[in-house]
Amino acid sequence: MPALTNIGCLATCAPGAGQADAGLIAQAALAWDDGRIVYAGPERQLPPRFRDDVRDAGARLVVPGLVDCHTHLAFGGWRAEEFEQRLLGRSYVEIAEAGGGIASTVRATRATGATELAARAARVLEGMLGLGVTTVECKSGYGLDREHEVRLLQVYASLARSSAQRLVPTLLAAHVVPPEFRDRRDAYVRVIIDEIIPAVAAEGLARCCDAFVEASAFSVQEARRILLAGRAAGLAPRLHADQLSASGGAELAAEVGALSADHLEYVTPTGMEALRRAAVVAVSLPIATLYLGQRPMPARALIEKGVAVAVATDFNPGSAPSWHLPLALTLACTLQRMTPAEALKGATLYAARALGLAAEVGSLEPGKAADFAMVDAADPREWLYHFRPNACVETVVGGATRWRAA
Fold this sequence. Notes:
The protein has 15 helices and 16 strands. The chain is α/β, with parallel strands linked by helices. It has two domains: 2-64 and 362-404, Urease, subunit C, domain 1, CATH 2.30.40; 66-354, TIM Barrel. Strands 1, 2, 3, 4, 5, 14, 15 and 16 form an eight-stranded mixed β-sheet that branches. It has an eight-stranded parallel β-sheet with strand order 6-7-8-9-10-11-12-13. The model has no long low-confidence stretch (mean pLDDT 97).
C-alpha cells in the first residue's frame, strides 16, 4: 500500500469542532489502498505494513482535493465588454436589461457546437486540476430550452467519462427567463417543469436542480414550483439566493431542504437563522463579489450563527471569469474575514456537503476517496496569505497522480 510521509502539515478537514478546525496534523503521513484512504495521522504512528511503498512529501502541506461546488463550466463566448461597462458605472442589472449578461451568453452558447463546448470545458478542467481541484460541480443554464439544456448536460456526461476529476452536473434551466418567453413567464416555468426536468431526469443527466431567485430572474413562488418539481424527479434542490437583493432566497432554500444557498451577499438575519435550522450550506462566491463590486457575503456572521460556509469560484463568462479556486480562498479571507482554516474547510468538506458528497470526498479520513493535493507551503495560513499563480505541486485523484508540476 502506498504512503506519503514527511508531510509538514496534513489538513484532514474532518468534521471536528466546526469550521475553524481544519484537522491540522504536524509531521504526518497518509496511506491509501485501492483508491481509498486507510491512514491519515502522525507519521510516528504509521503502521509498519504501510511502509513498503513510501514517498516523501518534502515537509509540504497536504490538503484534501479541493471541491469547486459552484461553476458554470460550459458556455460559448466571453463578456469582456461588460467588464469595461461595469468599470464605467453600468450595473449588472442595467447590462442585463439591455440584452447583455446571461442572455448574451445564451445566444453564444446556442450557437456553439457540442464538440467545441466540450473542448473549451476540458481545457478549464485541466487548469483546475493543476490547482488541486478534484471535484467540480458544473451547471447548465446557458441553453434555456429543452434542446440546449439537455445538450449542455450531455457535454458534462461526456466529459465525466474522460476527465480526471469527479463532475457533479446541475440543471439550471431556471437561470433567467429567455427572451422568447419574456412576456410569457409562466409558460417558461411550465416548460421547465413539464419538459426539461423530465427529460433530464429520464437520462440521469443531473444530480441537482438550481434556480436563480432574484427580481431580475425568478420569484420565490416560481422557484418553489421548479425546485419541488426537480426534487420529485430526484434532483436535489440548490439556489442562487440573495445575490443582488434580499429576495427571500435563503428562506426558500431552508423551506425546500436545499443542499445549499449560494451567493447570499444580501442575506437577512431571518434568512441566516432559517439556513442554520435547516442545515443548509451557505456557498460563498467571492470572485463574483470582487468583479461586481458587491458587498461581500457576511461569512463571519453566518459562521458565528452556526451555518457551514463553503467557498467556490462561480466560474462563468460574466461575473466570475476565473476558475482559480485558491484565489477565491484568499478573497474569502480578505473580503469576508474568514480565517485560512475556515476557508480551506469551506472548499473541501463543506463544499462536498453542498453537493451531497461529504461521505465520499472533502476530507482525508479512512474510507474516503484518496483525493489530495500537495502544496508548497508550511500550512494553510502561509498558503493563502502568500498568494502566487499556483502553489500546488501535485494533484492525486483516487490514489493516482493526475497532475504534477514540471
